[in-house]
């Protein structure tokens, strides 16, 4: 028997979905090892995680609440990766979007909610977008790799936010806590249901996914993004304005991450602090990869990752097993889906020696 | 100007510069070996965390200090092997695999730490490496305390700079590693294994990165904290480009960086009332970005960087 690899032209949708499902499942199965290592029972841990993420209306609403920023940062990464623009800076863009929301929405403007909320969102989108346009311009002008620059900018942004919430933006009524002045009521995103934290940011995320899906499939920009992502030189040869397309992608990508920040500030917390995001920007990378960079898939992948985090928190409270188990599942999902991408590119064939001859 | 000379004139400043540079020297050397062989290793940030945690935990559980260093290197090598399997053997995206390794190594380390020490409120300490004296040199006025009173890992880092330079430029193995990142077809034509060389380089490079992490918990501090690596790995990735993938320049870049960082810490003590502390803390990251922009156009990337190789491949 020998193994032969045949390159595939294009993997079908069913296979792509299968690979993502298998990757998520494999990651969940693999964390049985650390659960055992921590002295727990994997089956009980899985049961508690599912219960913690979906077991009640409250649990499910928390999962949706957690999925909201992940849908947006996932879309941010998906659209950028499609154009082979490696935006690893969604975390920083999220904070800058949140900052813009606070700057505009904490009393500077006094508008009715119908105008105030869109204003806050546009401000957050543009600020986040700018935060990705800058490294993209640097890449185009100076040839400096955007991966490292966006990664390093994440650290700069967090420190910048810390500086502001301890300084000029600090809430004088916060009893000394480093947090910003609160948003005015008109700027806050309404809750979806009473007594639950879910807010309209979720609808924004779902609409963004739909718009992005239509854009990628039906518009000239979508075609250009795909062309640039597949082969930059060929796209340029075909007359596609590669640099301009990249800048548009950067604006959209950073903007979506910025919207995630707006949602957290205007929908959940009501103020800005430097612990606004527990790594939503980095998880967005995993969400996008799990989704195979598909906008609709991103929504489902975000739900999965959110359920893992919410479920693990609840499981951790019940069993004492560290909630870092969730980060393990997320990291393993990324590596598993990467291994899965191998099977999207190649058909694996088992053959008897005699047949080959 | 007085402030400037006060700072530059203290032996303490130069000693701090070298201390701050040490983990970066390990990290840049590790990244340099991987990239010279054609593999970008963005796992570096997580491998730092793994090295810091594994080395510290081993000592905490009773291993000797050098035993801890060995465990840290092994942890790094293990994650390096995983990165090599994915990117070299399977030819998958080096960017995605690297980010995945960073996420995995970080979460494995944090999970292990929490599981091994569930009930600690303040991080427990170990008896870390102490500065050693080199007879003759350490007693020199000014130069002694400035340069020759460091912990053994710092001297080990310097030895590795020389060793890596020697192997890369003076041995057939070094020639093969450099060729495998520039023109893998030529290596295969000589009957050498492109994949074997690349896997080896990534494993060794990752072990070195982990030593950078181990320095943090076993020399610079004596405990493990969450978030203590704090972007040092990414800074190394920028410094490799700045150093044009050369060990000597990597040492210089790390030392410059250490000097700048030591300087801003001291400047902070002088003018910290006027300027918020975060401005100083941002400096290392901004400096890395500026360094990257300055050299990017002239950067002589290994030509086969990021390109997977399949056996018998032709151009």
Task: List the topology elements.
The complex is a heterodimer of chains A (357) and B (315).
Chain A: E1 2-7, H1 13-30, H2 32-37, H3 42-54, H4 57-82, H5 90-105, H6 113-142, H7 146-166, H8 201-218, H9 220-230, H10 232-237, H11 242-269, H12 280-290, H13 295-319, H14 324-345, E2 346-351, H15 353-356
Chain B: H1 2-8, H2 11-36, H3 44-60, H4 65-89, H5 94-116, H6 143-147, H7 152-170, H8 172-182, H9 184-189, H10 194-220, H11 232-242, H12 247-271, H13 277-296
Helix pairs in contact in B: 1-12, 2-7, 2-10, 2-11, 2-12, 3-4, 3-5, 3-10, 3-11, 4-5, 4-10, 7-8, 7-12, 8-10, 11-12, 11-13, 12-13
Tags for this entry?
heterodimer, A: 357 residues, mainly alpha, ABC transporter involved in vitamin B12 uptake, BtuC, two-stranded antiparallel sheet, 71% helix, B: 315 residues, 70% helix, globular
In helices, the fraction of residues of chain A equals over 70%
* Topology pattern of chain B, helix = H, strand = E: HHHHHHHHHHHHH
Strand order of the largest sheet of chain A: 1-2
How would you name the oligomeric state of the polypeptide chains in this document? Answer: heterodimer
Text of the CATH class of chain B = Mainly Alpha
Which structural class do you get from the secondary structure elements of chain B?
A: mainly alpha
Count of folded domains of chain A: 1
Shape of chain A: globular
Explain what you see:
The complex is a heterodimer of chains A (357) and B (315). The termini of chain A are close together. By secondary structure, chain A is mainly alpha-helical. Chain A has one domain: ABC transporter involved in vitamin B12 uptake, BtuC (Orthogonal Bundle). In chain A, helix 4 runs antiparallel to helix 11 and helix 12 runs parallel beside helix 14. Chain A is built from 15 helices and two strands. Chain B has 315 residues and is mostly helical. Chain B has a single domain, classed as ABC transporter involved in vitamin B12 uptake, BtuC (Orthogonal Bundle), CATH 1.10.3470. Chain B has 13 helices and no strands. In chain B, helix 7 packs antiparallel against helix 12, helix 8 crosses helix 10 and helix 11 packs parallel to helix 13. The mean pLDDT of chain B is 91. The chains are: A mainly alpha (357), B mainly alpha (315). The interface between A and B is large, with 45 and 43 residues.
